[in-house]
Amino acid sequence: MPELPEVETVVGDLAESGLEGRTILRARVYWPRSVEGMTPAAFRDRLRNRRIERIRRRGKYIVMVVGGGWHLLIHLRMSGRLFFAPRAEPRDEHERVVFELDDGRTLRFHDTRKFGRITLTMRPQEKLRRLGPEPLEREFTARDFAQRLACRKGMLKPLLLNQQIIAGLGNIYVDEALFEARLHPKRRCSTLTAPELHALYRAIRKVLRRGIRASGTTLGAGQANFYSASGRRGRNQDGLKVFRRTGEPCPRCGAPIARLVVGQRGTHVCRECQASHDT
DNA sequence: GCCCTTTCCTGGAAGC
DNA sequence: TGCTTCCAGGAAAGGG
After folding, report:
1. CA(A117)–C1'(B8) in Å?
2. CB-CB contact of A191 with A277 (8 Å)
3. Most Cβ neighbours (<10 Å): which of A43, A75, A127, A186?
4. CA A115, C1' B8: Å apart?
5. A 107-146 residues, CB < 7 A, strand B
6. Is nucleic acid strand B under 7 Å from A188's C-beta?
7. Measured CA to C1', what is the nucleotide nearest A112?
8. Could you check: is the Cβ of residue A222 within 7 Å of any atom of nucleic acid strand B?
9. Is A46 helix (H, G, I), strand (E, B) or coil?
10. Rounded to whole angstroms, how far apart are CA atoms A222 and A23?
11. What Cα–Cα distance (Å) separates residue A64 from each residue in A157, A184, A218?
């Protein structure tokens, strides 16, 4: 599941592999629903001979500035991957969109579960402005965070997964951040004290930075798992404290990690360390 | 406007 | 062993 650290890793890999400055000669769409907002034919026509000027990340989106004012927004969702392959290499059945580049390589969008989406648009802000702040940017302060959460009545976990509140968090890093901050995922936001909000702010930044340093989290071995654009597995799974560690001892107190469902999401907690209070 | 539920999909695990 | 069923999960749309 690509979240902020995984997308950051992919973008870093793509930039390092010299994607910026390359020209897309042709795009081939093998699963039309992977392309959002226009027909595959329009997508192909508008991308032909476009130069990839810049690549960056915003939340969980990969943003490529291509020529003529167009922007490619790529969301990997559950199982999406991007990687390079020589043009002659046969297509895997799960490759949904393939971009032919001017240097003999192809950039392939591989997505077993077909949740991923690619949007070609002149107005990227229509999508991107809905996103909350970037949690690792300097301008995102503990005060901003507290203000965004304090007025909410919902449970912590669904709110942190909401990309409009804060961009880039997904199931893995939310569970890890809540453990780090010793907060129960079902706690109502409005009941948090100022020190608790501050602890959560720091925890979110800590687990995301750790994830980026480890080049992301790769769970299991199947091809639907996370692999960077250069085909590397992440190493952050070894450092996870609670996520998918049901029954294992809590690294802080030794109590068994429990699994519960919060907002229809599998959720991992230490019931000793993460007091439930009002739940 | 906020919160909650449903929908999209497939591979792999679990159940029989 | 081999078949069937169930589940995970991000974002957006729809309902209350």
Report:
1. 12
2. yes
3. A43
4. 7
5. 112-115
6. no
7. B10
8. yes
9. helix
10. 32
11. 30, 38, 24
Count Cα atoms within 13 angstroms, Cβ side, for A2.
30
For the question of residue A176 being annotated catalytic, the response is no
Could you confirm whether A265 is annotated as catalytic?
yes
Tokens of A232: 């590397």
DSSP letter (8 states) at residue A185:
T
Where on strand C do bases come within 7 A of a protein Cβ? Answer: 7-12
Architecture in CATH of A142-269: Orthogonal Bundle (1.10)
Report residue A120 as tokens.
């070609």
Q: What is the pLDDT of residue A21?
A: 97
Mean pLDDT by 10 residues, chain A (279 residues): 92 94 95 90 94 95 93 92 93 92 95 91 89 93 90 90 92 94 93 94 95 88 77 86 91 92 90 76
- Residue holding tokens 């602890």? A199
Domain A4-128 has what CATH class? alpha beta
CB atoms within 10 A of CB A123: 10
Q: How far is the CA of A103 from the C1' of C15 (A)?
A: 50
Q: Which two tokens stand for residue A50?
A: 């476009």
Q: What angle do CA A166, A167, A173 make, to 5 degrees?
A: 90
| Rounded Cα–Cα distance for residues A80 and A108 (Å) | 10
The gap between A264 CA and C9 C1' (Å) is 9
Please confirm, yes or no, whether A60 is among the known catalytic residues.
yes
Which residue from A227, A238, A241, A235 is spatially nearest to A7, judged by alpha carbons?
Answer: A227
Residues of chain A with CATH 3.20.190.10: 4-128
- Residue ranges matching CATH 1.10.8.50 in chain A: 142-269
